[in-house]
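Feature request, filed as a ticket because there's no other form

It would be nice if the structure record came with a short human-readable summary line next to the C-alpha cells. Right now we just get the raw output. Example of a typical job, pasted below so the devs can see what we mean:
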Amino acid sequence: MKQSTVLATGILTIQVDDVGGDLQIVGWDRQEITAKTDDDDLVLIVEGSLVRAHSDGDLILYVARDADVQISNVGGDADIRALAGNLTTAKIGGDLQVRNVGSLNVTSVGGDMSLRGCAGDLHAQNVGGDASLHEIKGNVNIQVGADFYLRGAEGNVQARVGSDAALYLRPVPGKDVNVQAGSDVLLRLPAKADVVLSLQGCDDESIRIDLPGVTATKIGMARNLVVGAGGSTIKLVAGSEVIVTSRGEEWDNVAEFDPLGRDGPFSPGEFPGLSSDLHERISRRVEDATRRALEASMRAREQSDRVQTRVDAAMRRAEEKMQTSERRSMHMGIKVGRFGASLDGSRPPSAPIPPIPPIPPFPIGLQHAAAEPVTDPERLVILKMLQNKKISVQDAEKLLAALEGK
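Raw output as currently delivered:
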C-alpha cells in the first residue's frame, strides 16, 4: 500500500489521468487530498489549481467535496461518492457506481451504471450494460445497451434503451419524457396524474393502460390520451409491450429488475452530516472486508488448481497402467488386437458383459483404502468429465482408483 497527501487550498479540479485497476473517490470536508494505491506506481501532484492523480493499480482518492473531478480512463470499476461539483468520466472499462454528486457527464461505461442522487443534469452517451437511476434533480439524457430503470426524475428525460425499461415517475408540469426501448416498457404513475401520454407498441394488443378513470376501449399499436389536466408529455416507444399503471402490484413484479439500485453488503454509502473521521473508519472496514473476500477467493482458486493437478496426474497414471497392461498381454500371447483373437487364430468365448452400476450424483459412499483419500471436489471434477462424456464409466472408476493410489 502506497499513500500520498497534498494540501487542497485553492484546488478547483481533480484530474484522474489513468487508473489500471479499480477507482474509488470519496468527497470529504478536509482541505487536503489523499491518494492510496496497492501498486508501487502512484502520482499525486499539484499544478496550480489542478491536482493530477495516476496509478497502474487500484486507486482510492479522498478529495475536497466541492472540487470538480475529471476522469480520463479507468481499466476496472469506478465507485464515486459525495461530490458537490461537476463529475466527468471519459472511459470506464467495468461498472460505474455513483452516489450523491452534483452533475454527471459520462462518455462510455463498459459494464453497468448505477446512480443514486444527482443534484444536476445527467448525460451518459454510452452504457454497455444495465443502467439504474434514482433521484435525479436535473435533466436526463442517456443511451443504454441493456435494461433501464428510472425512479424519481424531476427534469426532462431522453433515453434510448436496448432492452426493457421500467419507469417510476411523477409528472412535472412543463417537463417531458421520451423513452425508446427495444423490448417492454413499464410506466408507473401516481393514481392522480396530469399528463399527456403518447404510446406505441409492436401490434394492436401491445398497449395496456390501467389508470383510474381511464377506459381502455381502443386498440391499436399507437395510443394518445390525456390524463387529468395534462401539463407534461410522456412519449413511450417499445419494441414489444407498453404497460401504464398506477397499481403497486405491477411495480412489485419488477422489484428484482433493479439490482443495481441497492447498495452491496460492503458499500459504505454517503449521507449528509456524516463526519469525515467516521466515513474514513467505514472506508477502512470496507477495504478490510474486500481484502478478506479477495483472499478467500484466491484460496478457493488455489484449492481448485490443486484438485485439477491431482486429477490430471491420476489420469496419466491410469493411462500408463492401461498401456503397460496391454503390452504385457501382447508379450504373453493372451490377446492380440481389439477383438481379442489368440495367437493360434481361435477366438475365445466372449464373457457376458456385466451391467453398469448406476453412478450416484455425489459418490461419497465410495470407500477405498488409500494413503490420501479422494476429496469431494476431486470426485466432482470426475463426475463433470463423465457427464460431459469426456471419459467413460470405466475410465471414471480407474481415475478414482488412481487417485487413491491403487
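Something like this underneath would help us a lot:
The first strand starts at residue 2 and ends at 7.
Residues 264-279, 331-351, 356-371 have pLDDT under 50 and may be disordered.
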